[in-house]
Structures are given as structure tokens and as C-alpha cells.
Design brief:
The chain has 103 residues and is mainly β. The protein has one domain: SH3 type barrels, CATH 2.30.30. It is 12% helix and 31% strand. The chain contains 1 helix and 7 strands. Strand 4 and strand 5 form a beta hairpin. The longest helix is centred in the C-terminal third of the chain and has 12 residues. The model has no long low-confidence stretch (mean pLDDT 95).
């Protein structure tokens, strides 16, 4: 399992088809992974913050990163990756940094 791998969402919300693993490789020994939902663009028409909510195309679907919904899940629930966003590491880090940085 690699940082920035994209997985089918193990949850039941059809508006969130994917999650991206953002957890540091230095924490691979844990049995949980920190993931950020990738929400269908059509489900979030009013989100316009390019830094916090960048848009990615996964399997021909426009998906919005939604770090406000970040969650830890059991690694065993993730399955095999369907895509990687490693080429967009700085964009992903920028979104999370914006979320947690001081004002």
C-alpha cells in the first residue's frame, strides 16, 4: 500500500466512489490508514476552493478531494489500488496543510 494510492470507497455512499491514502509510509506498521474521500464533482457543485478541494479525474470521473471528511480506516478494508495520485503529491499536501495550518 503506497501513499497517494486511490482505492474504491469501502463505504456505502455512491457520491464518494474513491478514497486516497494520504498516510506517511513511515507509519506503515499500523493496521489503519488515513484516507481522504474523493467525491463526485456533481455531488459538490458549490465547492470552489482550488487549494482545499482540488479536482482529479479517476477512471473518467471528476472527483473533488474533500479533506474535511478525512478518516482512518482499517487497511484490510481498502483492497487493491485503482489509481495513484503520487504525481499530485504537492497538491494533496497543500490541501491538508491548508486544513490544519494556523491562520
Amino acid at each position: 500500500m503506497a501513499q497517494y494510492d486511490v482505492f474504491e470507497n469501502p463505504g456505502r455512499n455512491p457520491a464518494i466512489p474513491y478514497v486516497v491514502d494520504v498516510q506517511s509510509p513511515s507509519l506503515d506498521g499500523y493496521h489503519r490508514r488515513m484516507v481522504v474521500p474523493l467525491v463526485l464533482r456533481t455531488a459538490l457543485p458549490d465547492i470552489h476552493h482550488a487549494t482545499l478541494n482540488p479536482i482529479f479525474v479517476i477512471e473518467h470521473k471528476q472527483c473533488v478531494l474533500h479533506p474535511l471528511e478525512m478518516v482512518s480506516v482499517p487497511a484490510s478494508k481498502l483492497g487493491k489500488p485503482v489509481h495513484s495520485l503520487s504525481a499530485h503529491a504537492n497538491t494533496l499536501i497543500g490541501a491538508i496543510d491548508m486544513l490544519i495550518s494556523q491562520g
